[in-house]
Amino acid sequence: MNHGQRNSALWLGLILNVLALVSNWLYFVHFPAAILPWINLILPVFGLLFLLVGVVRAFRQSQAYGGKVWGFVVTGFSLLLVAGSVWLFFLARHIPQSAGAPHVGQRVPDFTLSDSEGQAVALSQLLSPTAGAAPPKAVLLVFYRGYW
């Protein structure tokens, strides 16, 4: 009875599924968003494929790879990781609706902010017509931290 061989497909599938779960946190660390859905989808798919190969190997050659129980344990744990990864995949994209936020086409309530020189400027002041000119249709607000 040779238990010296390792079922590397099970381990690789487990590692890929752990990476799939961890990859959901990349949304919160300013990782390029265009590639993230692909990472979140490809890692669990490959992880599950390797797990399938590992389970088949564990059942067909149970004497060589240490039995069927270990394959079930790793596969069960990996399936929990995949379920968590799928849950986080959808949770990371869930943005709650704000009841107080203005809607498209709705007039923005008047507010006052300081300009770059520290002077108070109201939105109504910016949108009011000046002598001989039509009132502006829009205002661009730029929020920044610090002075650089």
In short:
It contains 4 helices and 2 strands, in the order αααββα. With 148 residues, the protein is mainly α.
Q: Characteristics of this structure?
A:
148 residues, mainly alpha, 2 strands
Strand order of the largest sheet: 1-2
Which strand-content bin applies to the residues?
Answer: under 5%
Structural shape: rod-shaped
Biggest sheet statistics: 2 strands, antiparallel
Structure, described:
The chain has 148 residues and is mainly α. It has a domain at 8-91. The chain is 47% helix and 4% strand. The chain has helices spanning 8-22, 36-60, 68-91, 123-127; strands at residues 112-114, 120-122. It has a two-stranded antiparallel ribbon with strand order 1-2. A hairpin with a 5-residue loop joins strand 1 and strand 2. Helix 1 (8-22) packs parallel to helix 3 and helix 2 (36-60) packs antiparallel against helix 3. The termini are far apart. The mean pLDDT is 78.
Helices and strands in order, then pairings?
Blueprint: H1 8-22, H2 36-60, H3 68-91, E1 112-114, E2 120-122, H4 123-127
Antiparallel strand pairs: 1-2
Helix pairs in contact: 1-2, 1-3, 2-3
